Amino acid sequence: MDGVVLGQGVNGTLYGSPVLTSDSREGMAMYFNGNFQGMSVPNPTGVCIGNPEYCPEGHTMTFWFKRQPKEGCSQVYIFNGGSGHSSHQGIMGKLLGDKFIFRERTQNSSWNVRVEEHNIPINKWCHLAVTWHSGIGLAVYINGDLFDIEDTGEVQDPPNNSFKDKLHFSQMKDGDTSACRYGNFTLDNVMIWAKHQSQEFIKLIYYNFL
Fold first, then answer.
1. What values do phi and psi take at 4, rounded to 5?
2. Residues near 85 by beta carbon (within 8 Å), at least 6 away in sequence
3. Domain of 151?
4. How open is the CA angle 75-79-80, to the nearest 5 degrees?
């Protein structure tokens, strides 16, 4: 199960003083209250989330997630790129209206998976996994089960040549000034692999924490 675990040699910068909480899946988790609280993590060495063009084997991110309501806002949960058409390359997960949108953007293509809000209920721990490979597509798993996959990316025209050197949680950039983008959620056991992992592997990670 070799991968990068945030907090074990890969540490981030906190904004707005999010807090550690014992309301977790294992040990302590990080709670962001939706009020200008976020975290930025440098792209770990050997993990190519910041520039998917350097991901010949794809990549995988898994984490435990418990969200709280925040009315009238398009909350950002994970951001490295892929927001608007001209945004950076990378991965994004956010709540927009009544749907979660997960997106992966490379120089020439963009993949999108939409998840109806009720599939990730409020105030309940869910295990989420996002896998991507240029030849397989973008897949989202909820509690060990495949929810959906987009295997064919949309053509990115013109090509996008920009990418970020950080992975953001609850914000789109360091010290984001848009109050509505900050998410109200708890995050635990974030793991990243520079490889597209199988459904069997995702299930193993999920059941390992039950």
1. -95, 130
2. none
3. 4-208
4. 165
| Residue 185 structure tokens | 């959620």
Number of domains in the chain: 1
Return the CA Rg of the chain.
16
Task: Report the CATH number that the domain containing residue 68 is assigned in CATH.
Answer: 2.60.120.200
Q: Is 119 exposed, middle or buried (0-12, 13-18, 19+ CB in 10 A)?
A: middle
Residue tagged 């709280």 (tokens):
68
CB 122 within 8 A of CB 132: no
Q: Which amino acid is at 118?
A: H
Residues recorded for the chain? 210
**Paired tokens of 128:** 């989420």
pLDDT digits 0-9 by tens, 147-196 = 999 999 888 777 777 777 788 898 887 878 888 889 999 999 998 888 99
Is the pTM of the predicted complex or chain greater than 0.85?
yes
